[in-house]
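Subject: Sanity check before I submit

Could someone independently write out the structure tokens for this chain? I want to compare against mine line by line before I put it in a report. The sequence has 466 residues.
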Amino acid sequence: MSKTGSSLLTLTPKQAIPIAVMIVFVLGITMIKWGFVPLLSLLIVIFGLMMYGMAKGVTFDAMQNKMINGVTTGMGAIYLFSFIGLLVSALMMSGAIPTLIYYGFDVLSAEWFYLSAFILSSVIGLALGSGFTTCATVGVAFLGMATAFGANPAIVAGAVVSGALFGDKMSPLSDTTTISASIVGVDLFDHIKNMMYTTLPAWVITAIIFVFMPSASGDFSAVAELQGNLIKSGLVHGYTLLPFAVLVVLALMKVNAIYTITATIVVALGLTYTHSSPDLAQVGGWFFTGYSLPDGVDLGSVGKLVARGGLQSMFFTQVLVILALSLGGLLQGLGILPALLDGMRHLLTKASRGVAAAAFTSFGINVLVGEQYLSLLLSGNAFLPEYKRLGLHPRNLSRTIEDAGTVINPLVPWGVYGGFLTGVFGMPVIHYVPYAFFCYLCFVLTLIFGFTGITISQLEPTNNDG
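---
Independent answer below. Compare away.
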């Protein structure tokens, strides 16, 4: 075993593969079989890797620095989650989400409930360019309506995730879309146009599946009761939908996400005082622990419906992000990820293998590390030279890593996206995974197109070829 300097290990693929398999096995058995929370499972894996590194002569400080470097790549997401926690509280206290739910009951039917959740989430996701924000706003609203419509919350969550990830993939405002295009050096809109070949069929097939899903069997007396209780809460007013308009307009203007969310929070906070007069201490409490109805007010399920948001609701997710990124930095520093990527390169002798290798690498990094951005960055950097060597246009690579990277992270219980949705939806990832059809279909279609050569574009020959 050789070392790079005094801290980094140089592994062969044969040495790295058993370690990767063991990591996935430990994560899977501790969370799925034993029911451990993802934080504990990640800590177990990190501790095991540090013991491995120490046995190979790597210093603790060196490994710690690698983990810290890994965390720095995701600090933007950590900050963003704090603001999303505040946003959900603000949209609740202002009445924005309760009002959206109230009017949603008037326009939605039990028969098309799942399809409606999917389509609306797709539209909002496309407008916002953020699956996180879409799930935390429209997703929360649809889950609030699910019980009254007699709908399965897990199917509703799967529909929302599918729609939100469509928007996250296809919106020019999305950071994952921008990263995927920039990492391989293609034009953003050329990248989006090329993604339509896999994304639009996946969207249509998903919509058809939700059409034929068993209809919700809503008790409309329960719907009427819930609407009545929403009115009694004093939160339902038409003008309280203004924060949603602010959110969409600023996003379309490409204003930074933090500034957009902050402006929305300010507007929502101002509207809160039009129908109630909480003191600052109470508002501060809502921003920290999440909004809740005043003590002594009993409005049935409305109380649970509006008790969402707050900084506290994001703590689990933020710690999960830190641990997942730490694991990624450690895997990189110990030479495990580089060895796995290097081991694939000699297999890339034709286009179909190139697409499959990039897809499974993006998928594998999501499962191994649980981090969406790393799956894009590492796969894009690793396979760009190989795609060019095979005569494949880089736009094929940017599409592949989105189809196998961006949309997979919400399906990983220990992933950043999965942890976020667990907190927002109030249900384990494993519950909605079977119904996130869009995410599976993107992955399957990119593999099919890779093997058949359909929609795979070649590099144009240069003028000095002969």
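---
OP: Matches mine. For the report I'm noting this point. Residues 344 and 428 are 33 Å apart (CA to CA).
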